[in-house]
Structures are given as structure tokens and as C-alpha cells.
């Protein structure tokens, strides 16, 4: 393992120090437990939108803290959900009368830790709700299993609920919006190479030179199947079909297309894939009204991409276009 | 051992040592069918338990287990953190303020722990999780209720080992390994393994 | 080689198609020769700021086309300088009475091709100047060699001259500003892994598991020396010392610190490195007034980072803070 | 061959075939001490020259070389594009509107090409560039001025080969390989190699 780190156990804490120094205008970092808080929090009268999860997916979530998006992010250790006390610290730092919405990616660890934190907050008389995002169609959904994972759709959910909170929506409204979004966003990813977790020291899995992992998660968890490497045209078609068939997305739908790099894929390839996805959607009569292209939900240095589609309506478009000013996403301000 | 607060603290200290020793094994098991953090998470958690106990040892077994529980909850993270945290918390609550434990108390505590894990994690036996180590451990303790604390824990440890080993053939239905589907078979579940290690370390400490 | 591509020879063209679709509000892409042009170009009365070079360094340069930065970018094939006719096409699409400034990274190919284009433009009666950026201290500077390479400093140069052009500075002024910046910006990079050029199909070089290439260029050209991998603290200190000693940067200086990912380095490590660099600069009495952290001058999937320092004064700070709206860099708008 | 416009076009066509054949070799040489694109760049350029010539062959040798030059300039890119482009352009200019070339013309053209490369690239012999193949080629042609076009080109090709080989031991002072410093020694310069291939292909076409 070659990495630009000191002690593997201190990677997250040291990285947060750099984040705080780089973006003092947007955020501050509380230590022990680690929480990234919007510089101007708490915002009286506004619903606090809080998210978090294991580190190693940057800019998710800390890179999305700022006006128009998250009020706080709770970074766990690498690929490890944060603990309830850290979530509680985020709630304390941001939440007032208007309450808070916790955005939780659907992994057993995240759900359990955030659930515990929400219970503790409720016991303190705070109005804290959580919404679980599970947009990854790679995993068969079933109540007998851990269910689908939260992946690329998380960014869209954080942006849109953040915008709703910013304009002053109530917790009921922000929560309802969140549930609506979860219902109409779907993703699918592929990995060409594996990430290496600092404290593990070797790649999370091994792929042959001509193999790719289709349906990969964002923790180097394996995907649906291991298939031979194929052309970008074939691969993007495969990803997109998995996504469109799931909901389904149909002729006439208006969508946001989010082409995400898992971290190690060069931008040259990412835009190439995006172009193919746009073409295929046009062929299917699905109109791309908004797009996002970049490394936003990553898995350390893993090479790969994911495609996320979300159905759009006028309300969602307005919220998407609303100003946002964070380390990783900014427009309109 | 008898089974006072100090004994429980001692048992937790030896558990911490065992987890430390097996950290790499647990990382490797989790790397195979999960995300590779189980060993590191458990080590971080039990190291924190050690320093909590260095500050002060509460004066009942239940209270000792309770500080262990809250420490684990705030230090482990991941799925294992809340699950082990709940297990220790429920065990602590079940023990109330008793100051010396007998074999029946061990049975009560272990069953409460199992119920806590299942209440939180919704896993059944056969789902390839720590539940597969805990269920036979509880059954063994309940079956051996007549014996000494050391005896029932020894039986529990054997059963937990057996239960952990049984996860090798299973297809995971809960936790991160479930994403692997059929490909999860053929691997030992890291959480079942750490449960077996913990029960064994308690049994050794009770000798 | 595993990449998300179709025909290796068509990678750049296909990727530009995706770029155009993703950012139609900011830019348009002309084909054959390939040029990325600001959507609202030409801008009457304003100096056109144009840059370009081999592809594979994205977001450089196409990701910096837009209000407040580049008027056009000329992407060559991967790691291959564009040809004079492509540069000419960029000039035609953007340049009016106010003239144009060509920003050229100091590589033999880039210099020769842009020089030729500038001569042709001059012959057409256009006022086109070029400035060569050579901020890489890894290479010993000498008139008997190819001289120092242009690396991270290029982004700063493009941002600042773009801002000057936007506020209406004359070509003389923009050119003088560019020369001033070139005089006070320095960079140094390191690679942990090698990039793979699509049409080559194998990594540009091979590093052992415990080796890093110190003083790497952005084309996978080798660096100053191959050294054993070391801690982030040691590595950042080594990079920073090379940079500060070169100009030199001294106690009391005010600087912009740019911590750049070469593409494959996870953001977690990048911010970690940034935090160390800030700490070391503080120790040396050098004040960081502005910072930029991200993958802005990359080398495909290469893992590594570079540090760039630029001396700041009030004028440069004002230009840095001026609004910019491009695919990769935005603030103030 | 005689040396009419058609012959020059034919020579360029065979040069394109040779470059195509050696594309991977040139990529590999450039990967070792540069950025790995030389073979691809040259192939792209000469493929374009082929299609330019398919459209129409101008009627003097100089005019043929001039369209080759402008095609190379607009298609090759990198360092080699402007350098070869200038070489062909200067050769074309030196030949004016002569319609049949003799050995003296070849000498004139080749020297003009060399001067063009040096004017643009500022490299001296010994800097480990294409100049190291061109300088001996020009010298050989000038020395053999009495012979036929085929003879002088054969001498030039041998000398260019020799000159290219001589770059192996050199430390690069120009072009991308110069960043390697001492580490550039022990490798054949890709541009010198492509120059030698081009001169050889002209010599073969002239037979
Ligand atoms: N729903 C569940 N019920 C019981 N145990 C579970 C459940 N989900 C996961 N586990 C246990 O947790 C272990 C993984 O823990 P860990 O690696 O620390 O967490 P994570 O999966 O979040 O990375 C699994 O091996 C399994 O034994
Ligand atoms: N200044 C120069 N003068 C003459 N030839 C040069 C010069 N710089 C580079 N070359 C030649 O160009 C070759 C590299 O060409 P190419 O790989 O196409 O361009 P780039 O280095 O821009 O990738 C070198 O092998 C060398 O022979
Ligand atoms: Mg985990
Ligand atoms: Mg795990
Ligand atoms: Mg090149
Ligand atoms: Mg080259």
C-alpha cells in the first residue's frame, strides 16, 4: 500500500484538519467526536439537514456542508459508520426549534448508529427524523436482507433537502420531500479496480486484468457479478439499463443524470461515459433536464463509475437550481 | 473466578487482549466478505474499554458492563458497534445491581444480550452473523445451568466456536456480506468469529 | 489496461462530446480541429485568454472555460500538444480587436505548436501574444535544455489572467500580469503510481511497491529521483522545501497554497497533505492567504500530488476572488 | 526512381507504411524516455498524408512536400509535428518549382530540412534528438553528391541509422527525455529512430 498518510488510524482526523484549514469560510470541524459543521450554524428557524457515514467517500459528506446543502456532516472512520454520540454532537451543533433531518445511507451500521442517535435526541425532546436512502439497484431489495445500499442518490438528496431547508420549509415538508426523492432516484455502479483501506493495507478485492465488478458498492463490497471488461458503449448501456428498468424510467420522463466517478477514474473517461449515457437516454425518449458529472461519491482510489437517475418535476428543478455553496458543489452564489 | 465487578473488569481486560491479538484475522475475514474494518473497529472499541476501566471500575458487574456498553457504542462504529453495545447494555440491565454473579445470572445476561442483538439487527440464526455464535452459546449456558460460572462459560465458548464455524457454509442474509449473495458462502463470518473470541476470553478469565 | 473507453484513438473526441452535453450553459465544443469555446464568445472589447495542451490533465483546460477564466481551450490528443490549426481555430472563435493571450505550458511540443499558431495569427494581423509558464522546480532550469515544465501554476495563471480580461484589462496589461505571475509561482509534484495512456495500453513507468517518483511531471515523465515511500509528514515537507527554496519563499511572504491531486489520489489523502502543508508554512512564518485544494492538473489516473505556491499581493488577491464560473472552478457567481 | 512529383508521392506513401509498421516500436521507445505518444502521433500524421495524396497529387516535388508538411503540422502535434512539418516545409521551399530532382537537389532539400529543425528546436548534434539522425544523413548525401538519387539516399539512410543508434549512449538535453537527466542514457531516441525510418523508406522507394 502506498498512500499519502501518517498513522493509518489517524487518517480521518488529520484529513479533517486539512479540510477545516482549506474551507474556514464554509465550515468548522469539531474534534472527538469528529463533526463537520456549517460555519454559520445553528440557523435559527431552519431545519438542520445532517448526514454522515464512513469516511473514504469524499467529498461525501463533509464537502457538501455549507449554505444550501448540509448543516453538518458526521464522518466515521474509513468505511465505518460514525457512532451515535458523534451524530448527537452534530445535532447539538445545528438543531433548534425547527428540528433536524438525518440522511442515512442504507447500511446496517449506519442505520443502527443513526437510529440510536435519533432515539437519544428524541429523549432530549428534539424533533429529529431520519430518512434512509437506498438507491442502489445492484442489490435485490427484500425485507429478509440488508436491503439496497445508499450510493450516488445521496448527493442529490442532500442537495435538494438542503435547498428546501434553506428556503425555510418545515421539518414535515423536508421529510416528505426526502421520502419522495428516495422513491424516484436509482443508481448502478461498476468498478475496474479495488480501493485500499488505510488500516487494511491491501486492496479490498482482486480483479483480473480483464475483469470488472458490475454492481459494485462504495466500500469495495462486491457487486452483482464479475464480468469481462467491455467497451464504454456496452458498459454504459449495461449500467443504464439496470437503472432505467428498476423504477422504471420511461419514455417521456424528465430526469437528472448524475455520472459519478468512484474516485480513480480520470475525468476524460468520466465525460466520455456521460456523453454515452446522454445519447442512450435520448434514444429512449428520456429527457435529461439537469446533470451532474464528477467524483462526488467515491470509494477511495477505486476506478469505476456509477450512473444515477432521478425523476424531475418543477419543484425538484427549482430546488436543484437553488444556490449552493460548499467545498464540492457550488452554483448560484 | 468468583464473579464480582472486579472479575468482570478483569474479563473485559482479557477480552481486549484477545481482540488485539486477533485484530488482523478479523480484518482479513471482513475483507473477504465485508469491508475490512471489523478487526480495527473492535480493537478501537476494546482499547477504549481498557482505558475507561483504568480510570475507575464501577462497583457492580452490571455497572461495569454498562460502561463497557457505552464505550463500545461510542467507539466501535459500523454494524458491530451498536450490536455489541446493545448486547452489553441489555446484559447490564438484566443483571440489575447484583454484586456477585452465579451461573443462572450468566444465562440471564447472555440471553438478554442475544435478544438485544436480535431486536436491533433483526437477524435470525442462519443469516450468517454474530447471532449464529450467540444462539448456541445461550443454549449451552441454559442447558448447563447447574454448573459453576466457569463451567457454563466453557460450555458457551465451545458452542459459540461451533456456531461461528457453522457460518462458513451459510449464505449471508444480513449485514454487508449479504451483498455478495451466493459468493458469501465459504467464508467465516467476522462478527460470529469475534463473538466466539469474546465468549472464549470470558470463559478463560472465569477459570 | 482497463479503461472506460471505446476506440483509444477516439477518446478525446468522445470525451469532449460528453463535456459539451454536460455544460452547454458554459461552453460549446467545435470539432475537427477540437476546440472548447466559451458559450458567449467572442466577447467584444475583451482580451481573449486561451490555453491548451495535451489531454489527460482534466479539468485542465476545458474545465476552466467560462466567465472569469478561459475564453477557449485547445485540447490535443492524450499527452500530445494540439496543432497550430486548432490553436488558430480557438483564436478565430474568440478574438477581436482586444487581442488574445495564449497560455502555453513549457513543453517543446506545446511551445512549438503555439508559436507557429501565434505567427500565423500575427500574419493575419491579429494581436496575439503568448506567455510560457514553467513553474515546475523539479527540472533544473537552463537555456541548454528544454527548461522547466508548466504544471500546477497554470491553473492560477489561467484564473488570474481570465479575471483581468473579464474586468477589461488591455492585452498589454494582461500580458504583463501573466509575466508577473510566472515569476512568482512554483510547484513540485510526486507520483505514487503511473498513468496509463489509452493508445499505449500499459503504464508509463513502473514503481516498486515501496517507491515513489519525486519531482514527477504531469505526463508520467520521470522526476528528479526515485525514493522510498515515506510518511505524509516527510513527503509534504520534502515537496514544500523544494518549492520554497526555489524562488525563495520567505518568512513574511503571503501566498496562495494550491494542493493538487494528480488524479488518482483520494480526497481524504489530499486534504491530509494540505493540512500538513499549511502547518509547515505557518512554522516558517509564511502566511497562507488563499488556498485551492483538488484535482485540477491531473495525469489521468496517476496517484500523487503537487504543491504550488504563489506570492500574493492585493491585486492578485482581488483577481483571485473575482467571480469565476466554469465546470471545475466556481465562486462569486 | 526518377524523381518527379509522383515519385515523391510514392515515397511518402511507402514512408506512411513504414511508420504504420513501426508504430508500436516508436510508442515503446517514447514510453521509455518520454510520454509514449510518438508512434501514435507519427501514424496519425502519415495516415493523414496518405489521404491528402489520395485526393490529389500536386505537380512538383516541392508542392508535394508542402502538402505533406502542412498535413503533418496539423495532424501530428507534440514536438515532432512542428519539427517534421518545418523540415518538410523548408525542403519544399528549397526545391522551388523544380519538376525532376537530382542528387544535388536531394542534398539541398535535406540540408534545408535539417536547418529548419534546428531553427525551430534549437537542438545541437549530441542532444539526443532527431538532429542526431539528420546531421549524418545530410553529411552523407553531401559527400556522395556525384551519385544517383538512389545512391545518395542509400548513403543517407545508412548514416541516419548510425546516427540514431548513437543516441543510445547520449544524455538528452532537449525534448521531454531531458527531464530524465542521466537516466535518459541507455535508450534509443524515438525521434531519431523515426527520422532514420523515414530516410530509409525514401531510399527504398528510390531504388
Ligand atoms: N443485522 C445484523 N444482525 C446481527 N449481526 C450483524 C448484522 N449485520 C451485521 N452483523 C455482524 O456485524 C459484522 C460486521 O461488523 P463490522 O465489520 O464491524 O461492521 P460493518 O459491516 O458496518 O463494516 C458481521 O460479520 C456480522 O456478524
Ligand atoms: N528541441 C528539439 N529539437 C529536435 N528534436 C526534438 C526536440 N525536442 C524533441 N525532439 C524530438 O521529438 C521526439 C519526441 O516526439 P513526440 O513524442 O512526438 O513529442 P512529445 O515529446 O511532445 O511527446 C524526440 O524523441 C526528439 O527526437
Ligand atoms: Mg464498515
Ligand atoms: Mg466491516
Ligand atoms: Mg507528447
Ligand atoms: Mg512523446
TrEMBL record, chains A, C:
Residues 7-331 form the DhaK domain. Keywords: ATP-binding, Kinase, Nucleotide-binding, Transferase. The keyword Isomerase does not apply. GO terms for biological process: glycerol catabolic process. GO terms for cellular component: cytosol. Pfam families: Dak1. The keyword Transferase applies. SUPFAM superfamilies: DAK1/DegV-like. This is Dihydroxyacetone kinase DhaK subunit. It comes from Amycolatopsis marina.
Automatic annotation (TrEMBL), chains B, D:
Keywords: Kinase, Transferase. SUPFAM superfamilies: DhaL-like. It comes from the Bacteria. GO terms for biological process: glycerol catabolic process. InterPro entries: DhaK_L_YcgS, DhaL_dom, DhaL_dom_sf, Dihydroxyacetone_Kinase. One of its GO terms (molecular function) is glycerone kinase activity. It holds the Pfam family Dak2. Residues 6-204 form the DhaL domain. GO terms for cellular component: cytosol. PANTHER family: TRIOKINASE/FMN CYCLASE (PTHR28629), TRIOKINASE_FMN CYCLASE (PTHR28629:SF4). This is Dihydroxyacetone kinase DhaL subunit.
